[in-house]
């Protein structure tokens, strides 16, 4: 299977990623980066599929419902689809039991033009991220690196980017002008870093 997964994540200087199932920081430009890249499609009639854990999905239901029209959710959960839909009723939603099942479903969506899926993103939490990296299916990583330390209860301590290289995307890609830019917001400095698999096995 070819590499078709994109990961989007943000982490602090010690690879902290969240606390109490939410972000410990509020950075408007980071939110714009995250939403713009993960929701944008070249074909306006298509949307992006999102592989996501249940707790992260429930967090999205609290804060990001306006963006749901642009995503098709594949939620990894032991709960039923009906219980997931109870959080936010919408048709573009599937529930699966495992990351492997999510990957098979997402690949099937890409291969079926009638599904209208353009790209696939893994948006958290840590376990889906780690499983994606272990799967040898990740093509690109969008990382917001925050140069500060926060109180977190979720870390990705073993993140290994040795098989990926930092890139600057072509100018025709959404927000490519921000790649590698150092941004300061509310006294916090951070950088948008983009990595691609470099072909080494």
Outline the structure in words:
This protein has 201 residues and is of the alpha/beta class. It has one domain: Dihydrofolate Reductase, subunit A (3-Layer(aba) Sandwich). It contains five helices and eleven strands. It has helices spanning 28-39, 54-63, 81-85, 99-111, 126-134, and strands at 5-11, 16-18, 47-53, 71-76, 93-96, 117-122, 138-146, 154-155, 164-167, 182-185, 188-197. The strands form two sheets. Strands 1, 3, 4, 5, 6, 7, 9, 10 and 11 form a nine-stranded mixed sheet that branches. Strands 2-8 form a two-stranded antiparallel sheet. Helix 2 links the parallel strand 3 and strand 4. The longest helix is centred in the middle third of the chain and has 13 residues, at 99-111. The model has no long low-confidence stretch (mean pLDDT 94). One of its GO terms (cellular component) is mitochondrion. Keywords: NADP, One-carbon metabolism, Oxidoreductase. Its EC number is 1.5.1.3.
Give short descriptive properties of this protein.
201 residues, alpha/beta, Dihydrofolate Reductase, subunit A, nine-stranded mixed beta sheet, 5 helices, 11 strands, 24% helix
């Amino acid at each position: 299977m070819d590499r078709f997964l994109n990961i989007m994540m943000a982490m602090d200087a010690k690879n902290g990623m969240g606390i109490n199932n939410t972000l410990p920081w509020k950075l408007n430009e980071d939110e714009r980066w995250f939403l713009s890249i993960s929701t944008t499609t070249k074909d306006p009639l298509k949307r992006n599929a999102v592989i996501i854990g249940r707790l992260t999905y429930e967090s999205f239901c609290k804060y990001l419902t306006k963006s749901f029209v642009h995503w098709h959710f594949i939620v990894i959960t032991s709960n039923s689809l009906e219980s997931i839909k109870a959080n936010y009723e919408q048709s573009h939603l599937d529930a699966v039991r495992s990351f492997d099942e999510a990957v098979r479903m997402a690949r099937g969506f890409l291969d079926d033009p009638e599904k209208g899926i353009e790209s696939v993103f893994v948006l958290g939490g840590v376990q889906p991220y780690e499983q994606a990296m272990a799967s040898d299916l990740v093509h690109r990583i969008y990382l917001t690196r925050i140069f500060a330390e926060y109180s977190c209860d979720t870390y990705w301590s073993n993140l290994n980017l040795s098989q990926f290289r930092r890139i600057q995307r072509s100018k025709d890609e959404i927000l490519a002008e921000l790649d590698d830019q150092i941004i300061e917001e509310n006294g916090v400095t951070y950088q948008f870093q983009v990595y691609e698999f470099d072909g080494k096995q």
